[in-house]
Request: fold
Amino acid sequence: MRSLILIFLLPLSLSAQHKYWISFSDKGGQIINTTEVSLSERALERRNRQNIAVSVSDLPVYTDYIQAVKNLGFKVLNRSRWFNGIMVSTNDSILVNSLASLPFVTDVYNFQTHSKSNARLSNKLEVIESSFYGDGFRQLDMLNGHDMHQLGFQGEGMHIAVLDAGFRKVDELAAFELLFENNQILGSWDFVAQENSVYEDHSHGMAVLSTIGARLEGEFVGTAPQAKFWLLRTEDAASENLIEEYNWLCAAEFADSVGADIINSSLGYTTFDIAEQNHTYADLDGRTTPISKAAVMASRKGMIVCSSAGNYGNNSWHYLGAPADADSILSVGAVYADESPTSFSSFGPSADNRVKPSVSAQGGNTTVYSTGDYVTTSNGTSFSSPIIAGMTACLWQANPDKTNTEVMNAIMQSAHLYNTPDDQLGYGIPNYTLANALLSIEDETHPFLSVYPNPLKNYSQLYAFVANAENITYGLYNLEGKLLAYQEVSSSSRIIQIDIPQLSVGVYLLELLVGEERLQERIVVTQ
Reply:
């Protein structure tokens, strides 16, 4: 019989609870078909729209393998079909040696010691005036989100899974009353404590949820007030252990199975209470950490993952936290209300030199809700990410036939630094009105003009869509008709960016000539 060797780096007690991740070699010969997978009809419909086939990773963990582990005396906490494994606990650390008798066990990870064993190894809003949103208006309008709401896209029909550390008092606070009255809270689960109650735990997830779903007329309305939500606790705020990344994995799979469209994760992992578990910057290549691999898998299943970039910008770590390094997701940095970058927002790029963060939104002095039942402010990419998640729900609602990749690409292409991304803001602040136009274009010979930001201070970016970017000119005029700037533009990109010179306070007219088609837009310059 082959031997399964575990090396313990810390002394273990027979009375303490020990937790392990056990990986299996296969799915026990299960056949790939929709009757075998635990996916809701909505989840299957989301995949069908994007031509994503059911695969082996969608098959459940083989029940006979799970039962065999339980028969040895382990308690099963969570399970993952994507990673084909289970999380277990036991009070007897010696019991782990009995796993050597199971030929289908390939890996065992000890969360207490960072020890890995390798055996073979391997209701629609009726008022859309800016005053309706109260203190939440700026963080919405910065993204041209107010315009999307006025078009009728407020997240209705979209399902968002919020993965966080707890949602303290969400079931008691005024900001969320309408969510319960309108059945917009679809359910909850605590992957840390294995129970469905998440309202007595940490308040971080409550504040995160408020930026998307708060609905207090004249005080605070979030970016997707008509969306529906799954509230999933994966983070144990009292400690920092790699087990939380596996909790996240299991929650992401749950979100997939119930048909969630979007995952917001205002969590990030770099270092842990057990130093041997720590990540290095080299690990942040999107393919190494468990949580980043899980985020990529979630994207491959057709969901959009929005992840906070991290708040390490002004400390020794400096860079992103996992899973913000994952590709195929939206990693979100933080700016203030005046669109200047915050010092704390984590820097990119990823370890393999991809642009990170993907985009940025307000995370400095962000309007959030408090457990004291009042509107307040807080700082962190924890809040810029859900603001983007909510607006992304509105955008996908407006374009339900588009894939997750098409939606994410349009968001990044609409951002104000798309042609000149940097390591602090990534592609910059998205313009969701522009992203919607990009996704809505049927006839690629028809140009449109969008100026962002507007009003502006001392700069703007001009975006125009054209199928053939040659023979384009623009002129900038004051209200007396005096030409202030003129330029011919040539670009093969479907998005053309033109720098606007510094201007005095006032109102101006921007005119774009594309062939024989003339487009105009008024721009307002403030101090």
